[in-house]
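Fold Annotation — chain and its backbone
Next Lines — sequence and tokenised fold

***
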Amino acid sequence: MNKNIKKPRHMAVYEAITSVETVEECIKLFDDLLSIAELRAMEQRYQVARMLDNGMVYSAILEKTGASSATISRVNRSLQSGGDGYRTVFARTEHRDEDSE
């Protein structure tokens, strides 16, 4: 668990997410669960994380995604010393991410 999170997590939402079976179901759930701004921020962070993992430099990521340097830096910190969530998902989706770029 992320050591910066002080309150206990409400596990029901995570259990709901892991029950999703298709990308279409995931889109529907996230559309209901998150605001448009939250969805776009999440999508942007994932894109930034992928680019950082592939060795892109901050300036190129900023130009391609429009993400702020603060967002890029925060995502980079998560990649370097986070809970390995990005790396776990990257390993499982590598072939699919390549197809969608």
About this structure: Residues 79 and 86 are 7 Å apart (CA to CA). The chain has a mean pLDDT of 90. The chain is about 75% helix and 0% strand.
